[in-house]
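Amino Acid Chain and Its Fold in Token Form
===========================================
Scope: a single protein chain, as residues and as a discrete description of its fold.
Amino acid sequence: labelled as such and written in the usual single-letter residue code.
Position: the record begins directly beneath this header, with no further notes in between.
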Amino acid sequence: MQQLRTLRARPAAGISGPRPSRDAAEAALVEHYPALVRLAHLVLPPSLGRQRRVLAAHATVQRALPRGRPDRSAAPVPPPRTPRDEARAWLRARVVARALAARPLLPAALALPRVTGLRLFPRSGGGDELALDRALSAVTPETRAALALTVLEGLTPEQTAALLSAAGARDPGRALAGAEELRAGVSGDLAALLRGPEFDPCTVHLRPTDLLRRRRRGRAGILAAALLLAAVPVAADALRAEAPPPAPAPAAPAADPAELRRADPDRWADTSRVDFTAWPARGARTGDTALLGRALAAWTGGDAVTRTTPRTAGGPPSAPPALLYAGDVDGAPVVLLHDGLRLARYTEPSTGRPVLTLARADDADVTTAASVALSRTGAGTRFLLAPWIAEAGVRDLRAPAAPARALPVARDGLTAPVPLPAPGPGPAADCAATTVLQLRSSARIVEDHAFLVADLGGLGPAHLTWTPLPAPGIPSRQPREAAGPAGLAAWARTGCLLDGLRDSGVRSVNRWEFAAQELPERAGRALWACVRAETWEGTGRADVLLETPVRPPGPARPLASVPDTAACGRFGQHVLAGGPWTAPSGTRYLLAAGSRHVVGITAGGAVRAHARGAVLAVRSAAEGVVVLDGRLADGGALRGWTPPSR
């Protein structure tokens, strides 16, 4: 990484060449056109939108051909492997330079081709492609260019730095370092992902624009022409008169109800991107332009009480959002909108000002885009279910063996009110129960897929999963749905933790059972679990639990809670924790356990002990801070978590 950062913004010696003939350049462009357009598409900014970015990529490549007489002072390009590659290498450098240089004035500079009446965009990929697309959107164009040149074009870092320098990049070394960091964070075959349909601007879908809107605009154009002809006889008198005050500027497209996007009702069953973009517009008031106009005005700066979930931007949409719902819910008009990154719920209560609630939804999927809370009243919470939900029920996590209670759902996807769960008996009364829905996806998109979501106070419920104990000799397990008997039994011991996550922007919660331990004095078997709550931003909170058979029944209380951590997740797969435990005999012990790659544990501070393997148990009557250190199978070190000192 450091070596990449030290690359100078100077072309290496001996890698310049004259411009090829126009015939050679045209032949190379035709032969390598798909690769060159894909390269331009990756470098151009995603903020253009899918259609304009596709058109801009084709325009960038087509305008890279040489014009006029040969230029003897051509920019340096990486040396070709054979003479046949000279023209391609020269075009590649031109494409990168034009894609980078045209960024500030892209629409005017490229003079994009016109496509009337049609929208065209690449095919949607799977979850890995969507994750990579989001990662690419967060880096600079120079970094995207460095990644494409090294991964797709096979250039060395030195060759890439020289090409970027010739293309006008200020710091090729930083771009290469950023590309390397992005490359390290991608799981799977990066080259295969970049060559997939998500990043192929030469294989596109065609869809018509809004036909009704085009028809209205056509009528408006005819009416405008007629009015213009009628105004010609009085034009001279009007010019002599005093100029009238200027007309008010037209409303921004994002605030115009006629510009709202509406997905096809069956799109969810015919796309690999099953999220909020596939929701159709539902509800009895989707044609109420007055209501829709008030909702858009509230989002673009109108008079409404605005509430946002943590780490959610509060500004207006940059483009016309999609309409997901408009109707009356529990006596109040409600509008639900989606701008690709956020959900916006607009509500007009019977008294007081309208309320606009914003929440992030940029990484939604078939589970996290399965339901939205539309109304909360004393009778309960009404949810709007995704069109792909075929069955819905309500569960009590404290009763895992009880069947789910059927939840009535109207034809437009709106559920009956779901009341808050009643307090549990005995010690369970200390646990604030959480509303949990058990949903089942339609067989049109996936077979036998049931999952749990928990209402934590936000617009979208959080997805609940669990990861069982690893088996010896078997690769680490992935989070799985918690709707089965084993998952429900696991969450019955953990559900009380959900109440502490309310209104914190949580997207998903996973219970990971990372170790089991035989207790001293033959007291049974203890289970170590880490509950990770992950937000839409990617940050997470981890709570470590020690569950023993002699623990008195009641709410689960974590030994340690760590905020803003990657631990217990995909990028934090090593964990070590410990804490005190009292045996039935009254003897106090220090227990500790680590995940599957921990091969040794050392305790220091108030307790000094060492154990081989992933568990430790030692008598300890001492009070004070205990420090745990673990040794990993690859020789690495791991600091453990312990309860805070009292």
In short: The two ends are 43 Å apart (CA to CA).
